Amino acid sequence: MSSASQWKEEKERILALPTEEKRKLYKSGDYITIDKVDPWIFYVQDNQSLQDKKHTVEDLNEFRKIKLNSERNININHKVSIFKGDITKLEVDAIVNAANSRLIAGGGVDGAIHRAAGPMLQAECNTLGGCPTGEARITCGYNLPANYVIHTVGPQNGSAPNLKSCYENCFALVKQYELKTIAFPCISTGIYGFPNRLAAHIALRSARKFLEDNKDVSRVIFCTFMPVDVDIYETLMQMYFPVHEWNYGDDV
């Protein structure tokens, strides 16, 4: 059997498995179900010290690029989460891979996803012809708890429009495949050197716009592995997903 027919057959088999059967394939038993990841509104309630994190003038300038529909705040605050940990452990519809343009397993989160998914992930990636910066491709998750992996290639030159395209194209696949839950790493902020804070603004702004327009998605998770990203997301999510009125006022 050729490698091409192998991954196709395995993909069809895995995607058809009931959840309990699929769990036998996971590389690790310490997978995390979606109900174990607190929605943002509960995260805020459990972490009262978050109100001490104040946004800056620069944050406010970025935030002014979006107009929130405040009537959606309560609903959307149940649909976003911060997760401090390993994205490969999450049992969701899709996790996002910060990939390279050749879609060949690399380091960091990319390598971790490929190791957890198994060799069929690379076999499928090899058929896609790569992925240009700012675009996204979708594959099966194979031995991952996630059903799918959405591969996107972040900019190496600090291009904010290209990073925005990464998130928009990932969300377009969410809509196309009718996915309900998705988890993102911090795209381009590692060896690609994109500024962490601006990257978070772009991620949160993109998610907010998508959730206001797409009511069927039940959870968007931001995986913040590094302490610097935890701090940034805890600060900025209070602006884009306000639980209290003062979170996004003009009095910086």
Written description of the protein model:
One of its GO terms (molecular function) is ADP-ribosylglutamate hydrolase activity. One of its GO terms (cellular component) is nucleoplasm. This protein is of the alpha/beta class. The chain has a single domain, classed as Leucine Aminopeptidase, subunit E, domain 1. The protein is 41% helix and 13% strand. It has helices at residues 3-16, 19-22, 40-46, 57-63, 73-77, 108-117, 119-125, 160-176, 196-213, 227-240; strands at residues 32-33, 80-83, 90-91, 94-98, 136-140, 148-152, 181-184, 219-223. A six-stranded mixed beta sheet has the order 2-8-7-4-6-5, sandwiched between helices. Helix 9 (196-213) links the parallel strand 7 (181-184) and strand 8 (219-223). The longest helix is centred in the last third of the chain and has 18 residues, at 196-213. It is globular, with a radius of gyration of 18 Å. The chain starts with a helix and ends in a 12-residue tail after the last helix. The model has no long low-confidence stretch (mean pLDDT 94).
The first-level CATH class is given as Alpha Beta
Helix content: 40-55%
CATH topology grouping: Leucine Aminopeptidase, subunit E, domain 1
What Rg is obtained from the alpha carbons, in whole angstroms? 18 Å
Pfam family, one: Macro
Domain Macro: 67-241
Protein name: LRP16 protein
GO molecular function, one term: ADP-ribosylglutamate hydrolase activity
